[in-house]
Amino acid sequence: MGLEGPEDLEQLAIKKINGGHVKEGLKLMLRAAKGYEEAGMSEDAARLYKYLGYVLLERTKSVEKARPSLLKSAYLYLDLIDGEISRPDVDVDVLDEYCFSVLEIFATLDDRRGLTRYAEEFAGIYEDLGASYQDNDDIEMAIKAYESAYRYYKLVDNVEAYKRIAETMITLYGQVAESRLESGDIERAAEAFYRLAAFIRALFGYDIHFIEMMDTAAKNFERASKIAYSNGDLDGTTTCLVKAQYAYMLARNFNRAKLIGLNAARILYQVISAHRSKGNDEMATEKLVELTEALMGIGKLDEAMGTYKSALETRSGMEFRVRVRLAALKHFAALNSRVDVLEDIENIEYYTDRGKHTKALELGENAMKREGLVEVLEKIHEAEGVYRSL
Known about the structure:
The chain has helices at residues 6-18, 22-38, 42-60, 63-85, 92-108, 112-135, 139-155, 159-182, 186-204, 208-230, 234-250, 254-277, 281-297, 301-314, 318-336, 339-353, 357-367, 374-383. By secondary structure, it is mainly alpha-helical.
């Protein structure tokens, strides 16, 4: 059998593993990884060594047996990071992938020293990138880079550094929000105010400063919903209403949040019916999840879970699972003024925004294993068809 290169070996390895010949498949996967490495295809090599490490960990439950492959992957990713940051135009999304992989590996290996070292190093890289983008008036990219720096400084509990970044982010998001208001982009201005509130919380906690900024976000989401409604855009109307509902909730304006939630639910029933009558199952499912969020926000959990179950019968997306957990966490955080839960929410949203729904779901599951949320999580699992004892 003439296998020409690592690509062929990888494909054959996958077939062997899927066919139940795991041991033979893993040997082929190792050969493919070495082949990629020898060919200078470092990203593919890093990907396969990482895969090998996690398969070994899953099968043997031994970190030590997985360690060589995982460390090999981590060091290849570190080389890739060095290469990426030396480019004239750094691709921040690619850099995110590499940095995330390195930190994930050291966390898996329970190597606190390595995790701390590289998180601090990556934070410095992103802070420098953010400053460079800011100097060039590329505010959107500056925000993206600074946000990663902020998360990594938080990870190693460098309080002085992450508060410094938070102050910068407040300034930048303030500029973005005002710019969007001036251009009439009300919904995205509301999103900026919502993000700004999170960094205010990092400095002041769950106090009046945070509440006032979250209230500003809520009012602008509500304003955006009215504009969408006047344009006959009911899909946009309900999306903005649900965002307004939860922003008002986090601002502890519970009466307004409930009123907005009831209004959103009323319109959503009509919207879902309209989409179904047109055979647009995809949009009907999306709106069922939105209705689930609205109902959870007004305390109708059992009704919400019935709606959620209906949505999952058509399409079961990991993003939906994250959204439902976020709704529960926001409701709990607002009712109890819980800063720790808000921090979990912000971490989950950070990974969601970057398309890392697996990580976001993992964080959401862990965050809901608190007293006062376990019963809600059990109901969510039941709706999802996952029966387990927690």
